[in-house]
Write a structure and sequence with these properties.
Layout lengths: L4 H14 L5 E9 L2 E10 L13 H13 L3 E9 L8 H6 L6 E6 L5 E8 L2 E7 L2
Parallel strand pairs: 3-4
Antiparallel strand pairs: 1-2, 1-3, 4-5, 5-6
The structure holds zinc ion.
The site of zinc ion has 5 residues, from strand 3.
Amino acid sequence: MIIPKEIIDELIRQARQDAPNETCGYLLGICGPDGDVVKENYWMENIDHSPEHFSFAPKDQFAALKYARSKGLKILANWHSHPASPSRPSKEDLRLANDPTIRYAILSLFEGVHLNSFLILNGEVVDKEEHL
Ligand SMILES: [Zn+2]
């Protein structure tokens, strides 16, 4: 999955703004000939307002899907920040990652800024890409 630099910068801004709580959203994009390309960050409210976990509201998920369709985009990834831990899924993240068709991206502000994305199947990471 390709994430353009200006979108990565936007994710970092959003993560810093919402710290110490985790921030979250969707990465919307297209499946092109060279693979998936992110075109847009779609901010979603972390209804947990927590530094250690996040949840989307079902109505926001529905609105995001509707928005993506209206723009001809797909939800390529679910992303969230880890303000104080590394860019890898927590046990809770693995447990809640129930869609093996999208990637799960984690932007960490811990010991520098790192962004990895994962494919998760049955609670286990089956693929990892480093974006930053
Ligand atoms: Zn997490």
